[in-house]
From TrEMBL:
Name recorded for this polypeptide: Two-component signal transduction system YycFG, regulatory protein YycH
Location of the region described as Disordered in the Swiss-Prot/TrEMBL record: 412-439
Organism listed in the record: Aerococcus suis
Domain of life: Bacteria
């Protein structure tokens, strides 16, 4: 049974985030229908490429201009995907998997080619198939989806994104806040739990044993783990990501809600983010983001939280109405933030403590803006008192959502504030113990 689970890992990792339809009138619509995303993922994984055919490279602007009067589907991912993760891609694209990454596939009806989009390289790669592309039914079903909404393409600092043209209704969610005990992580992360030395103080619970370092913030419950060990033989990106995916199941029973969102080739960090209802969650102290580095099948570095949410209180859900993406862009421009300053713009859930109980977490849908690699919530960048008609509101009553009940001193601050491992481990007794053992 374990082997079967591992065989399914790449399939789980490669689920697209969005399907964007383009018709002959140059109009775009977008769906996040889960069944269609699954079907599209399976379709792409089963394509057979012609290894002998040349891969043609086309400038992205030229490619888009050439197909502006054609019917197609763009399959968008959460972030840049390493080409090595797609085992069936032609070898030319996976040989140098440290650098090759892409953001989308483009598929045309009954075409004998598919197109791989790299926003970073600003290039479309033409991949030839062995057989004619039998995708008419899939494309027709995506176009016929009744949950699509109109979007407009916008070029940001790191490529094209699709922004909603109409208001969106998204439910506010409430969850019970749960915490894994420190002993759980000691048993999961240390090879010899019986030999652990405790260097805890008022600020951190700190543990050390045989080059394993663990520190858990006693206030925020942010967790940092480091295992100083010589690197094993070179691993492919695919093997690193698969190994990290395997380890994620140890820490998260609800692993299906954690999506692979990126691989940083410069330091080999693999990032997962928690999603609810196909929407990302943004929060400080790694409560909704896990960063992991692998050395073979072992974790060499881990940043996550011992806090988690699994139990939803459905009777506390309420629909909220958000302004359109186009209105959001207009507000940002009015406040000196141009599209060239933005890397991404999307609706996501903001994780906040409930004002009614510190045992509850509320997930509030709001617009999030990515700038200089950091995510910001719109309400922290813009004074919304000048835009009363566009404020976040309860759909049924029309009342403005009371952000002041939830937030304090967040202006111009990223939503994902987090400690660095240098801050956590430096100048601690645990660091001294580590140096003594190495000597």
């Amino acid at each position: 049974m374990q082997q079967n689970h591992q065989d399914q890992q790449p399939s789980r990792l490669l689920l697209p985030r969005r399907l964007v339809t383009h018709n002959k009138e140059d109009k775009f619509e977008l769906t996040t229908n889960h069944d269609l995303l699954e079907r599209t993922k399976n379709y792409l994984q089963n394509l057979q490429y012609d290894e002998g055919a040349d891969i043609e490279e086309i400038g992205l602007d030229t490619f888009r201009e050439n197909c502006k009067d054609q019917r197609y589907v763009e399959v968008k991912y959460a972030d840049e995907m390493p080409s090595a993760l797609y085992a069936n891609l032609p070898d030319q694209l996976t040989e140098n998997d440290e650098t090759m990454a892409f953001t989308a596939f483009v598929i045309f009806p009954k075409d004998d080619k598919v197109y791989l989009i790299s926003e970073d390289q600003h290039t479309a790669y033409t991949l030839s198939l062995i057989n004619t592309n039998d995708n008419q039914k899939l494309i027709d079903d995506i176009f016929a989806a009744d949950d699509k909404y109109a979007v407009t393409p916008v070029n940001f600092a790191k490529g094209r994104h699709y922004i909603m043209k109409d208001k969106q209704v998204v439910p506010k969610q409430t969850y019970m806040l749960e915490r894994q005990p420190n002993t759980f992580f000691l048993n999961a992360l240390f090879s010899s739990p019986g030999e652990i030395h405790d260097y805890s103080d008022d600020d951190y619970s700190r543990y050390y044993s045989n080059n394993h370092q663990l520190a858990i913030d006693n206030k925020t419950y942010e967790l940092n783990f480091n295992h100083n060990v010589d690197s094993s033989e070179d691993q492919s990106i695919q093997d690193k990501i698969k190994a990290s995916f395997n380890k994620m199941s140890v820490f998260f029973p609800d692993q299906e809600t954690w999506w692979f969102v990126g691989y940083e080739s410069s330091n080999h960090t693999i990032t997962y983010r928690k999603f609810i209802n196909e929407l990302p969650i943004f929060a400080p102290y790694h409560v909704s983001k896990t960063e992991i580095k692998m050395n073979g099948d072992d974790i060499s570095n881990l940043q996550m939280s011992s806090l988690t949410i699994q139990t939803q209180l459905t009777d506390l859900s309420e629909d909220l109405e958000l302004m359109s993406g186009t209105n959001t862009l207009e507000i940002l421009r009015n406040n000196g933030i141009d599209t060239n300053d933005i890397e991404d713009l999307q609706i996501g859930y903001r994780w906040v403590e409930s004002p009614d109980s510190n045992h509850l977490v509320e997930l509030i849908p709001t617009w999030h803006v990515k700038r200089d690699g950091e995510w910001y919530a719109l309400e922290d960048l813009v004074d919304m008192s000048d835009y009363d008609h566009l404020k976040l509101r309860y759909k049924d009553s029309g009342d403005v959502f009371p952000w002041d009940d939830y937030l304090e001193d967040t202006k111009d601050k990223p939503v994902e504030q987090e400690a660095t491992q240098e801050e956590v481990f430096h100048n601690s007794d645990m660091e001294t113990a580590s140096e003594t053992e190495e000597d």
